[in-house]
Design a protein that fits this description.
Blueprint lengths: L2 H28 L4 H8 L3 H9 L8 H20 L3 H6 L15 H5 L4 H14 L5
């Protein structure tokens, strides 16, 4: 890859990360997440969280953070496919779930500590609701 093509590719990846971050903030807001929950889920230190929240264009996201954002966006998309009602789309993450993985906890409770494996497993189970192939 030429240096110019690589620079364009990095710029495009950064733009996509910023767009994803903006969408993730919106989704997490609609899920009713606190600032502390958002910081943990996105793996952002407090000062960085508030900086990016006020100026998303300044974001410099690493691969882990981009992957976390991707899982959040994909969970949201799966919920939009499964539910027509916005109350269910945005409320599902706060509802107690008695399926084996959740054991009576809400999906948001499972992911709120920021554990990557919990985020991934929650994504897998929500994606399966829409018929995802797991």
């Amino acid at each position: 890859m030429s240096a110019i093509a690589e620079k364009k590719s990095l710029a495009e990846a950064r733009r996509m990360g910023i767009s994803g971050l903006k969408a993730a903030f919106s989704i997490l807001d609609k899920w009713g997440c606190s600032a502390e929950q958002m910081q943990a889920i996105l793996r952002l230190p407090k000062a960085t969280f508030y900086k990016y929240r006020n100026d998303p264009e300044s974001a410099r996201l690493d691969r882990d953070q981009v992957t976390r954002i991707s899982y959040l966006l994909n969970m949201h998309q799966a919920l939009r496919i499964v539910f027509e009602n916005p109350e269910n789309v945005y409320g599902f993450m706060r509802k107690r779930n008695h399926n084996p993985y959740f054991h009576g906890r809400a999906p948001l409770e499972v992911i709120e500590n920021g554990d990557f494996a919990a985020l991934y497993e929650t994504f897998r189970r929500i994606d399966a609701l829409r018929g995802g192939l797991w």
